[in-house]
């Protein structure tokens, strides 16, 4: 009987370990009056060489003709007066921000809003990627979101970074869907906490 008791305790610890998440949790309220580290975070400004593309962001896909189904939209938006619209894309896309400086002792709150013409079949993924000074990826945090007709917000709490990190990027994966239109807006990355150095 005692043997079964210990087996039960060990199984309980293993199962609880599988479901326990990180205690690191930052909220949007933590970001008030703190600078947004992302350039052109609400897609307000077009790129100088392409008025349909947002300044400070890169559109990455497998397309060979560089003709992406992406345009700045002044009808649907969460903040400012524009959003980024992806029109019925026949291929997967990554929208990647310019790099911005970070500190490994920082705790970061990341957010972004997504809307869709119809319920998404596959999820959009929001990433916070950190890099060392040589450009090697050191950390990756992710949040998946299946948008509907209403704007939905994805939020990431990131911290306890590798001590070699120097800069970061926000990346947005938009899955291909030739029958749906997706909007992105109101992205942010904020240094909301400082952890003590080891």
Give the termini distance in whole angstroms: 45 Å
Q: Show unreliable segments.
A: 1-22
- Gross geometry: globular
Q: Structural class, judged by helices and strands? A: mainly beta
How much helical structure, as a percent, in the residues? under 10%
Profile the largest sheet.
Answer: 6 strands, antiparallel
Order of helices and strands: HEEEEEEEEEEEEE
Radius of gyration: 20 Å
Q: How many H/I helices?
A: 1
Verbal overview:
This protein is mainly β and 198 residues long. Helix content is 9%, strand content 44%. It has one helix and 13 strands; from the N terminus they run H-E-E-E-E-E-E-E-E-E-E-E-E-E. It has one helix at 2-19, and strands spanning 46-47, 50-54, 57-60, 70-73, 83-87, 93-97, 100-101, 106-116, 124-132, 137-145, 152-158, 165-174, 181-194. The strands form three sheets. Strands 3, 6, 7, 9, 10 and 12 form a six-stranded antiparallel β-sheet that branches. The chain has a five-stranded antiparallel β-sheet with strand order 4-5-13-8-11, with no helix packed on it. The protein has a two-stranded antiparallel sheet with strand order 1-2. Strand 1 (46-47) and strand 2 form a beta hairpin. The longest helix has 18 residues, at 2-19. It is globular, with a radius of gyration of 20 Å. The model is unreliable at 1-22 (pLDDT under 50).
């Amino acid at each position: 009987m005692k043997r079964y008791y210990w087996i039960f305790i060990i199984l309980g610890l293993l199962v609880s370990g599988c479901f326990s998440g990180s205690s690191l949790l930052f909220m949007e309220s933590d970001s008030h009056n703190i600078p947004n580290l992302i350039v052109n975070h609400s897609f307000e400004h077009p790129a100088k060489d392409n008025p349909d593309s947002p300044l400070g962001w890169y559109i990455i896909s497998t397309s060979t003709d560089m003709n992406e189904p992406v345009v700045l939209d002044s009808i649907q938006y969460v903040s400012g007066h524009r959003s980024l619209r992806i029109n019925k894309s026949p291929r997967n896309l990554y929208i990647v921000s310019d790099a911005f400086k970070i500190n490994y002792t920082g705790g970061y709150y990341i957010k972004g809003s997504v809307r869709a013409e119809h319920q998404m079949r596959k999820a959009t993924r929001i990433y916070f990627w950190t890099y060392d000074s040589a450009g090697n990826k050191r950390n990756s945090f992710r949040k998946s979101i299946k948008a509907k007709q209403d704007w939905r917000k994805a939020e990431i709490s990131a911290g306890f970074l590798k001590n070699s990190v120097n800069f970061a990027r926000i990346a947005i994966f938009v899955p291909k869907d030739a029958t749906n239109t997706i909007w992105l807006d109101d992205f942010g990355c904020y240094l909301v906490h400082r952890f003590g150095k080891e």
